[in-house]
Amino acid sequence: MAGKPVLHYLDARGRAESIRWLLAAAGVEFEEKFITSKEDLQKMRNDGVLMFQQLPLVEIDGMKLVQTRAILNYIANKYNLYGKDMKERALIDMYTEGIADLNIMVLHYPFLPPVEQETNLAQIKDKTKNRYFSAFEKVLKSHGQDYLVGNKLSKADIHLVELIYNVEEIDPSATANFPLLQALKTRISNLPTVKKFLQPGSQRKPSPDEKARQEIIKILH
Question: How many CB atoms are located within 10 Å of the residue 195 CB?
């Protein structure tokens, strides 16, 4: 029997957090090997395990996978979270790309100099309300189903709920005018696997404080 997947990344959110969410939602137990110094990262590069010299890396099914989207797609395919046909997968990919666009902005926000945070937060709020959350609210309203695609849980739902949690940390009122997104968040959060992941002590990572931000910057730059 294959062993548990192993995620190599920092002890932080970054590009790996969506991988943690997806594995957890699928009910997959996984191990983490944390990169704690620049030397750790350089050793992995020297050993040739990072194809493009960057993290995250996931060891799964005898493979060493890099590139976040490739990892997420493999996990979604393996655990039946990627739709039933090409049309559904195209929608899931389209929604996921939009989610990632906003999530990158949100994840970068804590690393901005304080002088830039106010302007950036205003941009995040504007795009959340007028571009992204409004679009997903419209999708859910258009078909009246419980999930974004095919009335079945997919990686798009999981990524969207992760995004909602991330946005609400910096803007608690983000979903105030989006009742269907609120309902989706509640629905996904109550799934036993996700509920467990949201509990204290899980492998979910907190938003970085100043000390953590400096450590991450030190390792990656």
Answer: 12
**Structural element, H or E, at residue 70:** helix 68-78
CA–CA separation, 160 and 185 (whole Å): 8
Residue 54 shares a structural domain with residue 108: no
Q: Among 105, 180, 191, which Cα is nearest to 154's?
A: 191
Residue 91 is given by DSSP the state: H
At 209 the pLDDT is 81
Token couple for 175 = 């979903």
Residue 1: pLDDT over 70:
no
Q: Are 166 and 107 in contact, with CB atoms under 8 Å apart?
A: yes
Q: Could you tell me the CATH number of the domain that includes residue 158?
A: 1.20.1050.10
26-81 pLDDT, tens per residue?
Answer: 999 999 999 999 999 999 999 999 999 999 999 999 999 999 999 999 999 999 99
CA 168 to chain CA mean position, Å: 14
Same-domain check for residues 93 and 186: yes
Q: State which residues form the domain around 181.
A: 86-190
Both 98 and 180 in a single domain? yes
Number of independent structural domains in the chain = 2
